[in-house]
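User: Sequence recovery, please. Input:
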């Protein structure tokens, strides 16, 4: 069997020191295979984003081991095969849509002709034609998030880490972003870890849902999402299979919501 693209073993994270120590993550282990789309789901404060940031090398882990393509992840070390989409759009207000999307290519020194061709393709894929010269202040929240997404994808990452990128969007816009992401992922089949607190979102997008317990975050259950691909972000929610799996996971997730609130 091929080496997993991402390996997380006995991962732990504690914030603070001494009497002020707060355990955020405890003994978390999981693997991701090539092209797998995994959602991390759990109540607020369970450490979903903390796990993602440790995998990205943005914060150090306290215990355990993280490996990407067999290489140990080190705090502060950038891995070129990894792209990160943040919770809020990170577009530059002083750059147009096309210059935002092409920013990473500029930094890499990609030839102007190639850069313009790749940006034009990304604009088309994100359904942003006609807005290439627009500045972010004139765009809707969904459009800005599309710009953020394409700025990451244009770098052609093989591994994509996504931290609740659609959490601030309204329901209709979120569904549009789900469909766009599904279409883009079908073309490239990146290995994805997607952090969310939205069960519907996880079921729509993922191959697996790793459910985390209330803090300190531990893996409670690992669910397979058996829905065939390609998927339609709206029609999939109308199937009985979707409703059945939603109910099963929701029961387990609801227990953790109660624990997080101190009701159990």
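Assistant: Recovered sequence (264 residues):
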């Amino acid at each position: 069997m091929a080496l997993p693209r991402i390996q997380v073993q006995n991962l732990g994270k504690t914030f603070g020191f001494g009497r002020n120590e707060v355990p955020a993550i405890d003994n978390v282990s999981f693997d991701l295979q090539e092209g797998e789309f995994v959602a991390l789901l759990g109540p607020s404060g369970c450490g979903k984003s903390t796990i993602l940031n440790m995998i990205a090398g943005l914060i150090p882990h306290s215990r355990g081991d993280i490996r990407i393509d067999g290489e140990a992840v080190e705090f502060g070390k950038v891995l070129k095969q990894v792209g990160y989409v943040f919770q809020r759009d990170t577009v530059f207000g002083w750059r147009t849509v096309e210059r935002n999307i092409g920013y990473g290519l500029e930094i890499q020194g990609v030839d102007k002709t190639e850069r313009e061709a790749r940006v034009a393709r990304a604009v088309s894929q994100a359904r942003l034609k006609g807005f290439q010269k627009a500045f972010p202040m004139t765009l809707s929240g969904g459009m800005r998030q599309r710009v953020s997404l394409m700025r990451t994808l244009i770098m052609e990452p093989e591994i994509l880490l996504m931290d609740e990128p659609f959490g601030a969007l309204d329901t209709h816009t979120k569904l549009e972003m789900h469909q766009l992401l599904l279409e883009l992922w079908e073309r490239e089949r990146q290995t994805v870890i997607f952090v969310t607190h939205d069960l519907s979102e996880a079921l729509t997008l993922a191959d697996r849902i790793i459910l985390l317990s209330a803090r300190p975050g531990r893996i409670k259950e690992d669910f397979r999402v058996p829905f065939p691909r390609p998927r339609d972000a709206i029609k999939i929610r109308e199937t009985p299979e979707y409703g059945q799996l939603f109910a099963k996971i929701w029961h387990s997730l609801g227990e953790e919501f109660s624990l997080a609130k101190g009701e159990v």
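The two ends are 42 Å apart (CA to CA).
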